[in-house]
């Protein structure tokens, strides 16, 4: 009988050891739990890319302050793409507005009369006139690219911002990125800041500025498929 009791005790001890071992085996299981935790750690990495986008928009917010840091490239740079018929020949449309001849205007008889009254010798050389009749007049010389000319008058970059940085990036159709690089899409809300920088009482010939009417006179847009079809049909006739 005593022998049997000993066996029972041994079996008991053995089961304790096995149980203990099993318990100790559960600890290695813990790292498995850590593994799933790691998976969660991978997700915050996704959050990180989201953060990058957030910083992009944050950059976009600061554009207003850094607009002057972008270099001017001149309207000729935009012509290659934005004068394609399928894109609405925007360059030609702009060329037909008074903005494109604003510098030339400063040499006409009316300008000579205004200049005389203000004791300005040559309106085309006076900051008092050029500040509104050409593009980027106030910009530091180092930001004026060789292709930006006085002759182009009030050109693309006067309204869309200096293109030195967005020229290549805006093609990617990533609006946030293009904005961060300085691209401006003028809207009625922006018109005070943009159009009225020149269309104001400082102009010797100032006429009341009404954005809605004014923007129609300088309007240019990329034609829709429908509009293109109509153009084709008109050509065919
Ligand atoms: C290499 C071709 C190319 C050149 C050069 C180019 N663009 Fe563009 N531009 C594009 C493309 C592509 C788009 C996007 C068109 C679309 O979304 O349908 C675009 C769109 C735009 C838009 C509208 C952006 C929007 O979000 O709606 C503006 C404004 C613009 N360009 C201004 C300019 C100006 C100003 C210049 C010259 C400084 C210029 N582009 C030069 C290709 C060009
Ligand atoms: C850098 C200065 C400047 C900015 C910015 C500017 N303009 Fe002008 N605008 C002028 C000047 C200068 C003239 C007169 C040019 C001339 O008669 O030679 C003019 C003329 C015009 C005309 C008469 C055009 C025509 O062909 O009959 C309209 C309309 C106009 N601007 C609308 C706008 C609108 C809308 C905006 C903003 C989206 C704007 N302008 C931004 C300087 C500016
Ligand atoms: C504050 C900006 C600004 C300044 C400075 C400025 N202009 Fe203009 N100018 C304009 C705008 C905007 C127009 C078109 C709309 C208008 O006349 O209000 C214009 C139009 C003109 C026109 C055409 C007017 C017409 O009826 O077609 C002449 C000429 C002219 N300006 C000459 C001058 C001369 C000369 C000087 C310098 C003494 C000068 N401008 C200074 C903004 C300005
Ligand atoms: C007087 C200011 C002014 C000038 C100069 C100007 N633009 Fe614009 N542009 C605008 C305004 C305003 C819009 C409309 C913005 C909106 O409502 O989305 C616009 C829109 C555009 C668009 C978008 C069109 C669309 O259908 O989505 C392109 C592309 C563009 N401009 C290119 C140019 C180019 C290229 C030049 C020079 C050849 C130029 N712009 C000169 C004011 C201007």
Attribute tags:
Flavocytochrome C3, Chain A, domain 2; mainly alpha; binds heme C; 237 residues; globular; 57% helix; 0% strand; 12 helices
Low-confidence stretches: 8-14, 20-68
- Spell out which ligands are present: heme C
Order of helices and strands: HHHHHHHHHHHH
Number of strands: 0
Radius of gyration: 35 Å
Distance between the termini: 119 Å
Q: Percent of residues in helical segments?
A: 55-70%
Structural description of this entry:
- By secondary structure, the protein is an all-alpha fold.
- The chain has a domain at 82-223: Flavocytochrome C3, Chain A (Flavocytochrome C3, Chain A, domain 2, Orthogonal Bundle).
- The protein is built from 12 helices and no strands.
- It is globular.
- The chain starts with a helix and ends with a helix.
- Residues 8-14 and 20-68 have low confidence and may be disordered.
- Bound molecules: heme C (4 copies).
- One heme C (HEC) is lined by residues 75, 78, 82, 90-91, 94, 99, 154-156, 158-160, 185-187, 215, 218, 220-222.
């Amino acid at each position: 009988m005593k022998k049997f009791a000993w066996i029972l005790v041994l079996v008991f001890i053995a089961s304790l050891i096995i149980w203990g071992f099993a318990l100790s085996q559960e600890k290695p299981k813990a790292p498995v739990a850590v593994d799933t935790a790691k998976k969660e750690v991978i997700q915050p990495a996704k959050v990180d890319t989201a953060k990058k986008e957030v910083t992009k928009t944050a950059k976009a917010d600061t554009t207003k302050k850094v607009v002057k840091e972008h270099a001017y490239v001149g309207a000729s740079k935009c012509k290659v793409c934005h004068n394609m018929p399928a894109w609405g020949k925007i360059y030609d449309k702009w060329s037909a507005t008074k903005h494109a001849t604003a510098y030339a205007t400063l040499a006409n008889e009316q300008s000579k009369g205004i200049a005389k009254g203000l004791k300005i010798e040559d309106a085309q050389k006076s900051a008092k006139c050029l500040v509104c009749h050409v593009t980027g007049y106030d910009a530091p010389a180092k930001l004026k690219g060789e292709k930006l000319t006085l002759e182009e008058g009030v050109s693309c970059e006067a309204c869309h911002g200096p293109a030195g940085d967005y020229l290549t990036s805006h093609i990617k159709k990533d609006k946030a990125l293009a904005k961060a690089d300085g691209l401006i899409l003028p809207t009625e809300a922006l018109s005070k800041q943009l159009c009225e920088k020149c269309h104001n009482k400082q102009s010797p010939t100032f006429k009341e500025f009404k954005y809605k009417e004014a923007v129609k006179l300088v309007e240019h847009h990329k034609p829709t498929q429908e509009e293109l079809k109509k153009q084709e049909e008109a050509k065919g006739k």
